[in-house]
Amino acid sequence: MKENPIFFLAVPKSLKLKLPFALDPSILLPVETEENFPLAELTREMILSGMLRIISAKSQNNPLVIAESEMADIPAEWVDYYRRFVLSVKPEIYHEFTSAAIVKAKNGEFDMALEINAVLEGLFPASPGVLLNKALILEDKAKAKNDQADEKENIQTLEAKTLQAYEAALSLEPVLPDALFNAGFFFMRLRDFTRARDCFSRYIKVGEEPEKTKQAKKIIRDLDSQGLNDDNFKEAYDCINRGENERGLSKIRGYIEKYPKDWNGWFVLGWVLRKLGRYKDSIESLKKAAELGGTKGDIQNEMAICLMELGDPKGARKELELALQKEPENTKIISNLGVLAMKSNKKDEAAAFFRTVMELDPNDPLAKHFLNELN
């Protein structure tokens, strides 16, 4: 939806709005409205909308083009004034906008959730909760993307933004315990187990929720017993992400020699072998990962990709269905079921899978592409 432009108005003497805030006539009011609107129709909502857009843009360092005004470079003291105005006129905005951002994120409307959270960033620039919510929204958005070649750069960009958001939340003193706890799982997902361990260790010292403390302690024990802080593991994962597959293969083999009973190592080995086109060897490594206790749907998903490449659609579908049982809302798995259905010329079934992906993530580019192709 196209936004109206913002105009700056001097506070008119005739203004009769009832406000719990003393207006400063030396500061222009930003008003979001259509051009040439009657001044008598000026409302509090128009002023609030204009102020919130400016506060949001400033929080993201975005250039704001303002129609019919040379005030694009808005003085910092004006922005502070707008912030005080909003908090005075709308004191419930923190809880209202936080709830709205969470709902949007749960519905897969991540960009809208980030826009709402950006307003809160501008209003509460040092709020640990706002910074943590930004990290969580970005992380959920990255998780929702498919691990496809044409999306690789986009996913890496999202993960970099998520990392930046977590870094901001973790830099505050005193640190928010939930920021440490959630960041620990974020680093686990990136296979950066050294930083994950550090976050969980710090959470144990400051956390006040017994269940989370218990979970953090268990993760630390598992990390220590499995040797996941080993440099070879982290280097292998980073190399494969960068496309340095042969070097990654060498590093993960070195890790497995030291920790032959850790399923994570066998999974990464299967992953890199698949990327190298060694599908049969990849399947054997992935089976070993499952035997050693790997429970994530990613194992079956990787096996399914290998089986598709080997011309075994029946076996691939079996693995994908097992993966979906473990992670029923994993769009990557559902998309692969759609691709498999397309390969089997089951167009209606494929379309149904891609529509499901779109319901979970309305911005998924792969699902959009295949639905257009099918139509």
Strand order in space, largest sheet: 1-2
Number of strands: 2
Proportion of beta-strand residues: under 5%
Using only C-alpha atoms, the radius of gyration works out to 25 Å
Q: What's the shape? A: globular
Distance between the termini: 26 Å
Given helix and strand content, the structural type is: mainly alpha
Give the integer mean of the pLDDT values. 85
Helicity, in percent? 55-70%
The description of the largest β-sheet is: 2 strands, antiparallel
Low-confidence stretches: 61-71, 146-153
Number of domains: 4
Order of helices and strands: EEHHHHHHHHHHHHHHHHHH
Please work out how many helical segments DSSP would assign.
Answer: 18
Which secondary structure elements does this structure contain, and how are they paired or packed?
Blueprint: E1 6-9, E2 29-32, H1 44-59, H2 76-89, H3 93-106, H4 110-123, H5 128-144, H6 152-170, H7 177-189, H8 193-206, H9 210-226, H10 231-241, H11 245-258, H12 263-275, H13 279-291, H14 297-309, H15 313-326, H16 331-343, H17 347-360, H18 365-374
Antiparallel strand pairs: 1-2
Helix pairs in contact: 1-2, 1-4, 3-4, 4-5, 5-6, 5-7, 6-7, 7-8, 8-9, 10-11, 11-12, 12-13, 12-14, 13-14, 14-15, 14-16, 15-16, 16-17, 17-18
